[in-house]
Amino acid sequence: MTRGRGDTGTRGKNDAETRVNSDAETRGRGGAANRLSPSHLCVPASSSSFPFASSKASPRLKRVSQNSCILFDLDGTLVDTTDLILTCFRCTWDEAFGYCPPDTDFIDTFGILLTEALELLVAAGIAQGKIELTQERGLLINRLLELYRKFNMSLHDQLIRPFEEVPETLSKLAERGYRLGVVTSKRRLTAIRSLDAFSLREFFDVAIFADDCQRHKPHPEPVLRALDYLQCAPAQAAYVGDTSHDVAAGRAAGVRTVAALWGPFPRTSLEAAKPDYLIPSISSLLEIFR
User: Fold this and answer.
1) CATH superfamily of 18-80+162-288
2) This model's pTM is above 0.90
3) Which residues are catalytically annotated?
4) pLDDT tens for each residue of 73-99
């Protein structure tokens, strides 16, 4: 990334921010092997798909000459939905199967598409002899999806929580000239509800939801979709997320990756994913992105 405002390589000297991948400077980003061509991206959405490029965002777009941008995961990164998600999984499993796996099994699926998470969890339950298929597998997944979404819609507002310093940090990054985006495996309906719960929508110039792509994290398509919309090269971008799936998607897209320690994913799992940065709080981004 170019030196200056959009330099993800600029580091603060405060110990709050840790560089964890020493070979990041030499690792290729955005090369042909890592980046999908535009023809492989999902069909471009209409302008109504991106209700985030508000009048407040327009002046920022004009000030940025290097197209530098920072993309964020949503759950566990911008908003604290851990209790909500775990409760929805527990209630779904209890109603469908009469038992509940350990929370760590659910957390391991955080960051990927919900249907894929359900597939993995059901497969594990079958292998452990705790789930007996009494119907076609696809029908079971659809039933679990309906149950999960029922619980999510009813419990969302009472269980979602804000993370400290998120609005302040986003505001300061925007003032420094960065364009900001959301890349999430969450559906548009619930993702916007989460953003609006804490008035975060106004900070973002683009948002990519599960509805917008054919392939999902850890595949790089959602990240590349956001970069394509912003006309931002991978070398001038970064992706912040709290799971190893976020880090994998960012690395595959050729952007710098920032692992968030304030989410539920264990530090060891994030370190194993080899992000460029591992930070304890969202405000630590201000030490990296000058």
Assistant:
1) HAD superfamily/HAD-like (3.40.50.1000)
2) no
3) 73
4) 999 999 999 999 999 999 999 999 999
